[in-house]
Amino acid sequence: MRKLNDRYRLIIYNDTTFQSVWSMKLTRLKVFTVTSLLSAIIVILVILLIATTGLREYIPGYPKAEYRQMLVLTALKVDSLENELYKRDQFFKGIQAIVSGEVPEDNLVIDTSSFSNQIEFETFNHDSVFQDKLLAEQINLMPGGKSNRHLSLSQIHFFVPVKGVITNKFKSTTDHFGIDLVSEPNARISAIMDGTVIFSGWTIETGYAIYVQHNADLVSVYKHNSELLKNEGDRVKAGEAIAIIGNTGELSTGPHLHFELWHNGAAIDPEQYIDF
Predict the structure, then answer these.
(1) Which of 24, 146, 189, 210 has its CA 20 to 30 A from that of 125?
(2) What torsion, rounded to 10 degrees, do the Cα atoms 15, 17, 20, 21 define?
(3) What is the pLDDT of residue 151?
(4) Alpha carbons 96 and 85: distance in angstroms, whole number
(5) What InterPro entries does the record tag this protein with (predicted)?
(6) How far is residue 253's CA from residue 224's CA, in Å, rounded to a whole number?
């Protein structure tokens, strides 16, 4: 301990003239402290360099970017498989209960013993109650005095889902049953006609997708969205915002809208009926 505080002098001489050029007083404790601090700083800088750059992928055992992406996709698929297996098990349990004469667990049993047997009914004029609603529906379904159900597709006015550039056209031979539209970031996607949302959710391949059932046996499909603004069962109007353009799903190659149009269960080319 006494030697740690002993003073030393570091002197640099000119080899020719033996003149003192530079000198510094040192102690063993000071040398040990400075060396430790420099070593700690170097170690911290090396750790930050590895952690914040691509050098971390060269660490033995560290997974590559594609491996991490595969792990995430695998976890999503496993989660979907677990949900499907649970639904299958519940379905089989319900079938077994029905076959054995029992009531399935998920059935709702209502106890009607507390209901009164004496129920009074009041008559009212149905026409006066529903007249406005029926007239409104008839107006919506009868542009120009005819119902959409009896119009050909060429007579129907479609609202453009999103303004953009078509990067991939309809090709049924390659199973590309729609068109790809590239638009501005966070652009809103609109319904092409009045209709009802029949699906609004997430799928692994198409990301956030929404399906809308219209009159005239038409179904419009909007895929790879970043956000959905409507739920299943919601009524939508032509031009109403239903989603935000995005880049979700395994089949997406960049921010865009994959738009499909189905008529009588068959995919049709949207460019033949909508001016994009």
Answers:
(1) 146
(2) -70
(3) 52
(4) 16
(5) Cell_wall_metabolism_enzyme, Dup_hybrid_motif, M23ase_b-sheet_dom
(6) 10
Buried b (16+ CB within 10 A) or exposed e, 218-257: bbbbbbbbbebbbeeeeebeeebebbbbbebbeebeebbb
Least confident range from 50-54, 77-81, 236-240: namely 50-54
Burial of 188 (0-12, 13-18, 19+ CB in 10 A): middle
44 in Cβ contact with 36 (< 8 Å): no
Task: Give the span between the Cα atoms of 255 and 64, in whole angstroms.
Answer: 24
Token pair for 23: 């000198």
Mean pLDDT of the chain, nearest integer: 81
DSSP code of residue 232: T
Give the Å distances, CA to CA, from 142 to 151, 220, 239. Answer: 10, 20, 18
Least confident segment among 87-101, 146-160, 189-203:
146-160
